[in-house]
């Protein structure tokens, strides 16, 4: 069986981005897949939604990334594309902690498959604050790693009468802050989560891209196409003390997105029993 990169080597791959994500994605994809990167300068990814909300995002993050890929391919006549979409909010498992959820999607029209990868991280500066003085604004800026990470200012959350994005200079922040306070009596400051203004987010996007490469390198045992991935996790690893089924993983089910072939891998973490401390019977 040839290596997975043989599907892509030497082909043009269009990046569906206008926010500099190729800075972290290009080295990873070029090295792993041997593709030639092209851009889609006509593409306006803000049409799929903005973090500040003046253009609402109506699709899920994964679906938005898919639509970006499709649009970029149509604009450039490429048959291979990659796109990213991120979302920010409470961590799905640790509700009180902010998280960055990044999807990276690759679509191959020539070979008729799509591969998606997701990374969730708490390493984000995602935050916002309604400020009534310059000191409050500067204190918030310090808390969210300004100026290495840029800020956005507007009169209030959801108020788009005036909005200034990409502020990464102290003098500009002070000048704009005074202008907002003078005009509106307060200013709503939020972290600029666009990738080129947020190095923390860039790292999470890179981690998602590495996961994408891992999935691409997993070939289906039946049809041989890339993207053979874990779709189901079966709990029930027995307790080493009492033998009861625990919540720990006993098996993974790999599924091919193309042909539907399924394969079960037992004991994927290389252990056949679980420590009693994780057993609901021994340690209720």
Summarize the structure.
By secondary structure, this protein is an alpha+beta fold.
Structure write-up:
25% of the residues lie in helices and 26% in strands. With 284 residues, it is α+β, with helices and mostly antiparallel strands. It has three domains: 4-122 and 198-217, Alpha-Beta Complex (Maf protein); 128-192; 230-278, no CATH class. It is flat.
Number of helices: 5
CATH overall fold name of the largest domain? Maf protein
What's the number of structural domains? 3
CATH A-level architecture of the largest domain: Alpha-Beta Complex
N-to-C SSE series? EHEHEEEEHEEHEHEEE
**What is the residue-mean pLDDT, rounded to a whole number?**
94
The main pleated sheet reads as: 5 strands, mixed
Distance between the termini: 49 Å
Please state the CA-atom Rg, rounded to the nearest Å: 23 Å
The main sheet orders its strands as 2-1-3-4-5
Helical residue percent? 25-40%
User: What fraction of residues sit in β-strands?
Assistant: 25-35%
Oligomeric state, counting identical vs distinct chains? single chain
Q: Which parts are unreliable, with pLDDT below 50 for 5 consecutive residues or more? A: none
CATH class of the largest domain: Alpha Beta
Shape: flat
The tally of strands reads 12
In terms of structural class, how would the helical and strand content be classed? alpha+beta
């Amino acid at each position: 069986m040839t290596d997975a990169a043989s599907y892509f080597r030497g082909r043009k791959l269009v990046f569906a981005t206008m926010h500099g994500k190729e800075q972290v994605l290009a080295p990873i994809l070029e090295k792993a897949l041997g593709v030639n990167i092209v851009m889609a300068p006509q593409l306006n990814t803000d049409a799929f939604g903005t973090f500040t909300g003046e253009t609402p995002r109506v699709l899920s993050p994964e679906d938005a990334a898919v639509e970006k890929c499709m649009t970029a391919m149509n604009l450039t006549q490429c048959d291979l594309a990659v796109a990213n979409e991120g979302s920010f909010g409470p961590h799905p498992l640790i509700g009180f902690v902010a998280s960055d959820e990044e999807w990276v999607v690759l679509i191959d029209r020539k070979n008729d498959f799509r591969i998606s990868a997701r990374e969730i991280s708490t390493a984000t500066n995602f935050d916002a604050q309604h400020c009534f003085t310059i000191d409050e604004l500067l204190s918030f800026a310090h808390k969210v790693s300004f100026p290495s990470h840029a800020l956005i200012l507007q009169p209030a959350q959801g108020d788009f009468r005036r909005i200034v994005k990409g502020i990464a200079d102290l003098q500009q922040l002070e000048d704009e802050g005074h202008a907002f306070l003078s005009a509106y009596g307060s200013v709503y400051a939020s972290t600029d989560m666009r990738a080129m203004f947020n190095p923390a987010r860039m790292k999470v996007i890179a981690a998602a891209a590495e996961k994408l490469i891992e999935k691409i390198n997993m070939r289906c045992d039946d049809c041989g196409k890339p993207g053979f991935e874990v779709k189901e996790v079966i709990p029930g690893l027995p307790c080493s003390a009492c033998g009861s089924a625990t919540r720990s993983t006993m098996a993974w089910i790999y599924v091919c997105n193309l042909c539907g072939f399924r394969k079960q891998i037992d004991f994927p973490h290389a252990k056949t029993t679980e420590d009693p401390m994780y057993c609901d019977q021994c340690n209720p």
